[in-house]
Design brief:
185 residues, alpha+beta, seven-stranded mixed beta sheet, 5 helices, globular, three-stranded antiparallel beta sheet, Glutaredoxin
């Protein structure tokens, strides 16, 4: 299994805007349409990565728990679907339904959004405040497919809770680890 870490975009970076196809309902949506009233979580994921498959249940749990608190969740796949057809839009739609994603699952065909966010791996997590300024980037928690540590979403939850409680997030943040984004050649 490849182990690629996050690039750790600078805190306070303004979220780059985007407009992408939501594979769940085949509509084009923008960041401004999807952002939460208090916070926004942007996740770079894909269908086939074992690290993402491992965290899928917790992603759904956290999103369902925090949506009512004004937190928006957006999943984006930026993988090259030509060389990795299992990550193409049609299978993204199926994957979102099978995993009961309560959030949109967007396809970044040009990979421009991943580059704008300096995303490196799947899963890669970014948490922005109500002004779309970066408060957290890094791992979901310490659980990995091979380490038998239970999924808790602890790191992501703490970051979201800091925003909701108007307290500063810990600036010492651990990068996510996962499969590298499959860049076009």
């Amino acid at each position: 299994m490849a182990r690629t870490p996050s690039n750790m975009l600078a805190l306070k970076t303004k979220a780059p805007n985007f407009s992408l196809i939501n594979t769940v309902n085949n509509t084009t949506v923008s960041l401004n349409e999807l952002k939460g009233s208090h916070a926004t979580v942007i996740m770079f994921i894909c269908n086939h990565c074992p690290f993402v498959i491992h965290v899928n249940p917790e992603l759904t749990t956290i999103a369902n728990e925090y949506y009512s608190k004004g937190v928006g969740f957006i999943a984006i796949s930026s993988n090259d679907a030509i060389n990795y057809p299992q990550d193409g839009p049609d299978l993204m739609h199926t994957h979102a339904k099978e995993n009961n994603y309560p959030f949109p699952y967007l396809y970044d065909e040009t990979q421009e959004v991943a580059k704008a966010y300096d995303a490196a791996c799947t899963p890669d997590f970014y948490v922005f405040d109500k002004n779309l300024e970066l408060v957290y980037r890094g791992q979901l928690d310490n659980s990995r497919p091979e380490n038998d540590i239970p999924l808790t979403g602890e790191d992501l939850r703490k970051a979201i809770d800091c925003i909701l409680n108007n307290t500063p997030a810990n600036p010492i943040q651990k990068p996510s680890i996962g499969c590298n984004i499959k860049w076009e050649n």
